[in-house]
Amino acid sequence: MELRQLEYLVAVTEEASFTRAAARLHVAQPGVSAQIRQLERELGQPLFDRSGRTVRLTEAGKAVLPYARAALSAVAGARLVVDELTGLVRGHVTVGVIEWMKILDLPGLLADFHRDHPQVEITLSESRAADMIDSLRAGRLDLGFISMGTTPPEGLETQIILAQDVVAVVAPGDPLARRDTIPLTALRDRALICLPKGTGLRAIIDEACAAAGFTPGVSFEIGDPPMLAQLAALGLGVAVLPRSAALAYRDGLRLIEITRPRMTGRIALAWRSGGPTSPAARALIELARTRLPEDDQR
């Protein structure tokens, strides 16, 4: 039994696919299948049910999985101890990002980190806030830039690095275009253009509308904030965006403050509050917290 076989077992389980597991591990799919078959022959039982559209663990696979994860965790822990004793910072870190954090100087931060720690490989992964939070908790991400509401996600430590108002954006001919401010209830019967469910900003909007006594009528859900502004410019509805995403289109749009209540979108650094963290991940978290100080606007 080899460690890579256990690593492949865990990856196939989490991805529910040999193909996706191979892509995640950066190896050829036949190699993953061959190693899993070899492990199954050694254990004398099939570990995966391959008969359906997705790959599922058999009862034997479910029994083996906790031991596979424990073995991989033990090896990672041994490497951490040795690296800390020798003062080495090397290995690999994975950073999660969201679309509208591009206003931050992430390339500059990563360039400084690479200059100090050239032996560390860095992977960027873009996903929705909800998926990123799950990946941080599971240890698949070392550091994430997440959009969030007022309550930090359970199991994570956070540092808010950007807080900004959420605004309504409409085309110049829209009935709301003459107004500088509106209450949230002014959007009760309007077609809204929003980020999709699972994003931090959408959660803020949905919670505020629920508190105001109505369900938002969302006509378009798109993960790219600038495209939301473009759809609003075409008169397809009211886009609800963080201010920074709307400012790039202010010449062709009307930005309207939303009051009663005022909503604030937040970008936060997030990392797992428990479990092993590699020296490389700790070094990157420390640099990010220093370079991107906490935003006091709450």
Which key terms come to mind for this protein?
298 residues; two-stranded antiparallel ribbon; 10-stranded mixed beta sheet; 12 strands; alpha/beta; D-Maltodextrin-Binding Protein, domain 2; Arc Repressor Mutant, subunit A
Largest sheet descriptor: 10 strands, mixed
The overall average pLDDT, rounded, is 86
- What is the total tally of β strands? 12
**Within the CATH hierarchy, at the fold level, what is the topology of the largest domain?**
D-Maltodextrin-Binding Protein, domain 2
Q: What is the CATH architecture assignment of the largest domain? A: 3-Layer(aba) Sandwich
Number of domains: 2
Shape: globular
How much of the sequence is in beta strands? 15-25%
Estimated radius of gyration: 23 Å
Global structural class: alpha/beta
SSE pattern: HHHEEHEHEHEEEEHEHEHEEH
Q: How large is the count of helical segments?
A: 10
Mind telling me the CATH class of the largest domain? Answer: Alpha Beta
> Which stretches are low in confidence, meaning pLDDT under 50 for 5 or more residues running?
none
Rounded to the nearest angstrom, the distance between the terminal CA atoms is 52 Å
Helical percentage = 40-55%
Keywords: DNA-binding, Transcription, Transcription regulation
Pfam family, one: HTH_1
Protein name: LysR substrate-binding domain-containing protein
Family: Belongs to the LysR transcriptional regulatory family.
How would you describe this protein?
The protein is α/β, with parallel strands linked by helices and 298 residues long. It has two domains: 3-86, Winged helix-like DNA-binding domain superfamily/Winged helix DNA-binding domain (Arc Repressor Mutant, subunit A, Orthogonal Bundle), CATH 1.10.10; 90-298, D-Maltodextrin-Binding Protein, domain 2 (3-Layer(aba) Sandwich), CATH 3.40.190. The chain is 42% helix and 23% strand. The chain is built from ten helices and twelve strands. It has helices at residues 3-15, 18-25, 29-43, 59-86, 106-116, 129-138, 200-212, 225-233, 243-247, 279-291; strands at 48-49, 56-57, 91-97, 120-126, 143-148, 156-170, 181-183, 192-194, 218-221, 238-242, 254-259, 264-272. Strands 3, 4, 5, 6, 7, 8, 9, 10, 11 and 12 form a ten-stranded mixed sheet that branches. Strands 1-2 form a two-stranded antiparallel ribbon. α7 links the parallel β8 and β9. α1 (3-15) packs across α2 (18-25) and α1 (3-15) crosses α4. It is globular and about 75 Å long. The termini are far apart. InterPro entries: LysR_HTH_N, LysR_subst-bd, WH-like_DNA-bd_sf, WH_DNA-bd_sf. Belongs to the LysR transcriptional regulatory family. Pfam families: HTH_1 (PF00126), LysR_substrate (PF03466). This is LysR substrate-binding domain-containing protein. It comes from Actinomadura fulvescens.
